[in-house]
Amino acid sequence: MIIISDTNILSSFAACDSLPLLFRLFSRSEICIPPAVQDELQVGLKYGKTHLNIALKEIFENRIQRLPLSSNEQEFSQNLPKNLKIGEREGIALAQNRKLLFLSNDKQAVRYCHRYGILANDLVDILRLLWTRRIISKHEVKVIINKMTEVEELTLSSKQLAIIFASSRRRR
User: Fold this and answer.
1) In 3-state terms, what secondary structure has residue 129?
2) How many structural domains is the chain composed of?
């Protein structure tokens, strides 16, 4: 199976030097990106977000594959809401057309996916899966969150933290 990631998921995991955890979590899948995600990572690097080098290295070494869009997917992405960044629009187009899982921490993108029946996981889902599938412990997830907060100024609400660490899955 192929999984499509957007920029912010790769950036968050690169910020805490934890991209290998995504590979472990999705070990039976290939993590891919649309072309715009690589472009967004390179722009972020130019703005001094040096941790993005980690994600770009994974792309250049082909551990994260760049997946071009068909002409139909390009057209579809151009018709998605303009409040979504190009990386999210291209990722949604690939996920929708090819019935793939889309990883994003953009609330509007994930909401769009859920509204239209496109499989999508956000950062909360991924962090929860890391400990529920026993890839790492709850404590290690907390360390990752702290590092993401430090490097990327990530803010998770108390509700999001409760979902991540709940003993049983709660509905949002």
Assistant:
1) helix
2) 2
Among the listed residues 25, 27, 23, 43, the one whose alpha carbon sits nearest the alpha carbon of residue 35: 43
Residue holding tokens 């997830």? 141
141 part of a folded domain: yes
Q: Is 62 left (phi over 0), alpha (psi -120 to 50) or beta?
A: left
Residue in the structure block whose two tokens are 């957007």: 6
Give yes or no for a contact between 37 and 10, defined as CB atoms under 8 angstroms apart: yes
Residue 48 falls within a domain, yes or no? yes
For 144-154, how does the pLDDT look when each residue is reduced to its tens digit (9 = 90+)?
999 999 999 88
Residue 6: DSSP 8-state: -
45: amino acid identity, one letter:
L
On whether both 88 and 131 belong to a single domain, the answer is no
Residue type, 92: I
pTM reported for the whole predicted model: 0.93
